[in-house]
Structures are given as C-alpha cells and as structure tokens.
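Fold this: Dynein assembly factor 5, axonemal
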Amino acid sequence: TSERSGQGPGPRLAGTDPRCDLLGSRPCWSLGGATPPPSPSERPRHGHSCCSGPLHLRVTVRRAVASVVGGWLLRLRDRYSFFHKLIPLLLSSLSDEVPEVRQLAVSLWEDVGLQWQKENEEDLKDKLDFAPPTPPHYPPHEHRPVLGCRELVFRNLSKILPALCHDITDWVVGTRVKSAQLLPVLLLHAEDHATQHLEIVLRTLFQACTDEEAAVVHSCMRSAELVGTFVSPEVFLKLILSMLKKAPSASGLLVLASAMRGCPREALQPHLAAIATELAQAHICQASENDLYLERLLLCVQTLVSVCREDCGVGSLQLMDVLLTIVALASATGLRDKAQETMDLLARAEGVSGCQDLYRKHMGPLLERVTASHLDWTAHSPELLQFSVIITQSGEPSQQVVSRAWPRPGHIPAPPGAQQVPAPTS
C-alpha cells in the first residue's frame, strides 16, 4: 500500500530526520549521532534543550514530544518509512519520571499498536487466532504490550539496536541515561525475539555496567534480568561465561548475576553445576583482589542461592570454594561479613545448621585443592590465605586441619632446600 511504501499522497516530513524538525537539535535520547565530543571543559552534564531549563518547561517539551510523535505514528501517511526513528522517541517517554507524560505515552503507544495490528490483520492472522498465553514467568508488575506493539518493536529492532547501543556509551550523561532506560523497554517488547540480537546486547551491557552513573547501571541490570527471563539460559550462559573467560570483569559478573536473577528456577537449575564450576575456576574467582570485583562475584553466588535454593546442593562445594576465596581476599570487613552470611544461607539450603557444618562437609576436597600448590606458596598466595581462613573459621582444631591436609606426622612439607616446618601442637 502507499502507507507501507511511504510513496502515497499527503504531507511529507520537512527534513530527512523527523527528530531534528521536531526538536531543533539532537535530543538526549536520539540514536546513532556522529557528533564529535567537545573538550572536557566544554562538556555539559545535561546539555540538551529538552533536559535543561525550568522543570515545567522540560515537562511541557517532553509532553509535546510524546504527543507529536504519537500523532505521527498514528496519522502520518509516511509513518511506515519512519517507524524505526519514531518508535524510540515515543518509547523513551514510557520511562519518563513525570506520571502525566508516562500515561500519555502509554495510551498513545497502545493506540499505535492496535492500529498497526488492524492494518496488518492478514499478516498477523495466525498469531491473533492462536495467540499463546502470557509466559508464566513474565515479569511481575509489568503490563504485557498488545501484539501490535510487540510486533512493531520486533520488526524494527535490527534498525534500532545498533544506534541505541552506540548511544549507551555516549560522552553525554543524559544520552547514556535515556538510552539505557530505553533498552529494557525494547527487550520487554521483543521477548524471546531478543535472542538473535543477544551478542550486541550483552557486549553493550558489559561495557555500560562500568558507567559511573548509577541510573545507567540500574537500567542495564534491568535489561540483563529481562535477558534472563526471555532468553534460554543455555544461550545466554554460553555467551556470558565465554566473555568472562576471555576477560573477567566486575561488570561482566554483574550482568551474569542480573541475568540469573531474571531466569526462572526450573530453567536455571540444570545449569547450576556448570555455573558454580566456572565461577570457582582460578581465572575468575582469583582474577582480582579488588573489592568491587569480589562484591560482584559474591552477588553471583547470592543470586544462585536465592534463585535455586535447595537445588544448590549440586554445586555446593564449588560455591563454598568461591565464598572461601572472597573471605580470604577481601580487604573490606563488611564484604567478608556478607560472604559469611552467604555461607550460612548456603548451609540452610543444604539442610545443615551453619557454615561450620558446611566446612566439615567439604573439608577434604577444599584442603586438597588449596594445598595442591603448597610448594609454590608465598606470603601473598591466595591458597595460603584460604588455608588460613579454613584454620580460623572451620571450627576444627588447627592441628586436626593440618594433619588432614598433610597426613604424614611431625612436619609440614616444604619446598626443596627449605627447612621443614613443625606442625602446630594446638
């Protein structure tokens, strides 16, 4: 039809990009801009007309944006040609902090979806006649968009995502915040169709979760949760764990923890042992002694325990190993305390009374792994620090722990040429 081709009669947009005609400049949520960044001294914190000025003027501008863009999506004859440019503008208003603007955007967006659904009834006939029910694990407190809205986003996602992912790492704070807020809205609409775009989404989340702006990180965590909700864990775990293996990072661990938090228990459970084993590998759990890194590593364990609960028994030894490493390496007392609390939660999930029972249950394998490299220990070796934690916190007499580690009585093995160290007597 003329509407779909964009060649029918009727009013045309004045410029090649309707956003510029509407706002007069690149808005803070515009996509794919190539404006070179100014010098640091010239950089405004929120440098766009729609994000600065008195509050009532900013609200008026944002309300006008939602109203005009919604009107274009409903009535402009060329709208099919500009869906990928107009949809992000309207969807950005769904997360506006002003309820009035939010409600206006929600109403307009639903009207757009229903109208498009009606215009494409033949194309959507099977999906309308045999529509599956709402997924049982659909995020609570979220209203599922109508089919027309979901289809519009899915069909334009490949055009929107590259520019959006570029803007999430923009030099302007306002652009990063609004772009990061838009990503979970798109993923909520795309549902399992996001799988085909997962690589670019995860790569962006890994980078954006290093942002100094808490709002950006919060939105990215929400996006990662939705990835866990709608994408098969077999798919997202393969990509995330592979990226962590190549370059372990605090941001990558945060993405992993958020994705697991959004994943249903029954879907995550078959992969629990593999996740725990990977986290316990030295290249991840000993990759950094930075407290932020260890905090995110702890968050992964906490998420696994809270989601899988009693199922954690299959990976209990590996999770205990990770927690032992965090206690040994953390410099912040609060972080060590949180790791100890998580040990207690893991113990309860396994049906034992506390962390000392957990130590006793796994003492043999833990000591075997920790002492395997004792000939190479230095004062700063993680394994030596772990061994010290076992001695001080396991609840067993130190002599008994040492004798279990090195059954030969009377001495602790030492490197060749070094003096033998007598075993402690208490």
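Residues 333 and 402 are 26 Å apart (CA to CA). Residues 61-125+146-224 form one domain.
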